[in-house]
Write a structure and sequence with these properties.
homodimer, alpha+beta, 2 domains, DNA-binding (chains A, B), transcription (chains A, B)
Chain lengths: 245, 245
DNA sequence: CGGAATTTTGACGATGCTCAACAACGGTGG
DNA sequence: CCACCGTTGTTGAGCATCGTCAAAATTCCG
C-alpha cells in the first residue's frame, strides 16, 4: 500500500459523491459494484463532456482509455480505404466505450449529441475489472448483447429493402422512447441527421428522405415541423411495414 | 464434496484423456485452463459429431447447452419473419457456440461441413466459468473479437458492392488458408455452397456466380474443376479489387 | 434578413434481383 | 460402365430498386 495524500483522499471522496448521484449508477457497469467498491473505480474515472460532432477516438489511434456513457449518444463508425462510411453501432447512456483487447482501434467513435462520459485509463481499468468478477461478468453480458444487436443489423443490411430499414429504425426509436401520448402518437426524438441515418442503414441521404416522406404519405408518421423529431401515429402499422409477414 | 463413484472417476479420466489430445486444446477456451483444472470441465463436456447440413440450434429454442467447435465449420443465421436469411457469423475450430445471457435463442446454428464439437450443459458450464476467471476473460476477448468481425461485415453489407464483397471473401479465406504453394497460387477450400456464400454476403446465388466468373476472367482465381475449391492466382490483385483505394 | 447547411424532390441510370433455360456434377441403379 | 435424375451452378434477358446528379425548398443561425 502506498500512502495516500490528502489530495487523493479529497479526490476520491468527491468522485464517489459524483458516482452516487450519477445518472447511470444503476445501468452502467458500475451497477455491479457496491458503494464501497466504487471508491477505487471512481478514483481513476474522470468526467468528460463532449460537444455534438466531436470525435472521441479515431480508427488507427492507440487504445489508451475506455469509458461509460453517462448522457447523450455516440456513433461507432467503420470505413473503407476510399472513404465510404458505415455506422456499426450506437452507444447510449450506460453503454461501455472501447475495444478492450485491441492495441490499435479499428473504429471511430463520435458524439452524435452533446455527451457526458466517465473515462478510465486503460491499465487502471483493466486492473479494476480483473478484481471485480461481477463487473467483468456484466461486461461480458453487455458485449454479447452488442453482438446480438450487430447481428440483427447485419440481417437488415443484407436482406431488407430501404422501406423496411427506415420503418424498422423509426420503430426501434419509438420502442425506446416509451409509451404513447394522450392522442395515441409516440413522440420520437431522432438524435442524428439524415446523413447519419443513411450511414446507419446502408442507404443514401436521398433514399432515406424519400422513404420518410413515403411513411408520412402512408399516414404512419408525421413531423413536428421545424424539428428533427417525428411523431409515430401508427406504431402497429409501422411494424407491419418493417416486418412483412 | 459428494462421493465419487468408480464410474464417475473412469469418465473423468477418459474425458481428460480426450482433452489432452484435443485438436483445440490450445486454441479454445480450454487453453486458459491448466491440465488439472480441465478435469472438472471435461467431466461435464460431451463430444458430438454432426453431419453437414444438420441444425445444431433453432432460433426460438430454449438455450440449454453451449459448445466449443473442435473441427469443421458452423454457420450462424438470422432470418426475417417472411423467410429471408442472412448468415451473421461463421464458427471454426476453437470458437465458442451459444448465446449466453439469452433464454430463447434468436439465431439458428447449422453445420456447414461435418463438425465435431464439445458441448456443455448450460448451468454446469456457467458454474465452471464463474470459478475460472482466466476462462471468463478469454471468453470476453473472443466475444469482443466476434463483435469486431461482425462490425467489419456490417461495413461490407452496407457499403461495398458485389464485386468487392466476393473478392474480399475469397481473400479472407486465402489469408486463413496460409502460405502460397510452389507455383504461387494459394489453394482455398470454400466450405459452403453458392447459396450459403450469397446468404453470407447479402447477395443472390446468381450474383455470386457472376462475380466469381468475373474474377476468373480477370485472371485472379481459377477453379479446380469438379471441386468447390478455388486457387487464388493473384492475392495482391484480389485485395486491390476488394479494397479499392 | 441573408447566407450556409440540410433536406426534399425530380430525372435518369447502373447495379443487382427475378425469372428462366441450360450445363455440370454426383449419386443410384440397371 | 453408363444412362438417368435430382441437385447445384452458370448464363442470359428484362426489370425494379436504389444510387447519382442536379435543382429547389426549407431550416438554421448569426
Amino acid at each position: 500500500m502506498t500512502t495516500q495524500t490528502l489530495a487523493d483522499r479529497a479526490h476520491a471522496a468527491q468522485a464517489s459523491a459524483v458516482c452516487h448521484e450519477c445518472l447511470v449508477r444503476d445501468t452502467s457497469l458500475c451497477s455491479s459494484l457496491h458503494d464501497h467498491e466504487l471508491v477505487a473505480l471512481s478514483a481513476i474515472g474522470r468526467r468528460r463532456t463532449v460537444p455534438a460532432g466531436q470525435v472521441i477516438t479515431w480508427a488507427g489511434d492507440v487504445v489508451t482509455t475506455f469509458a461509460n456513457v453517462v448522457s447523450g449518444a455516440l456513433k461507432v463508425t467503420a470505413s473503407t480505404p476510399d472513404g465510404r462510411e458505415q455506422i456499426v453501432g450506437l452507444l447510449f447512456p450506460g453503454d461501455f466505450v472501447g475495444q478492450m483487447f485491441t492495441d490499435e482501434a479499428s473504429l471511430t467513435v463520435t458524439a452524435l449529441t452533446e455527451t457526458k462520459m466517465c473515462s478510465f485509463p486503460r491499465a487502471a481499468f483493466e486492473r479494476e475489472l480483473g478484481s471485480h468478477a461481477r463487473m467483468e461478468r456484466m461486461l461480458l453480458e453487455r458485449t454479447m448483447a452488442s453482438l446480438d444487436e450487430a447481428r440483427e443489423r447485419m440481417l437488415s443490411l443484407g436482406r431488407r429493402n430501404a422501406q423496411e430499414r427506415v420503418a424498422g429504425f423509426i420503430g426501434q426509436l419509438a420502442e425506446r422512447a416509451g409509451l404513447p401520448r394522450d392522442d395515441g402518437g409516440i413522440h420520437v426524438s431522432i438524435p442524428m441527421s439524415r446523413g447519419e441515418m443513411a450511414d446507419l442503414l446502408g442507404l443514401t441521404i436521398e433514399t432515406v428522405s424519400r422513404q420518410l416522406t413515403g411513411l408520412k404519405a402512408a399516414g404512419l408518421i408525421t413531423f413536428a415541423k421545424g424539428e428533427r423529431d417525428c411523431l409515430v401515429l401508427d406504431s402497429r402499422g409501422l411494424d407491419l411495414v418493417a416486418n412483412p409477414a
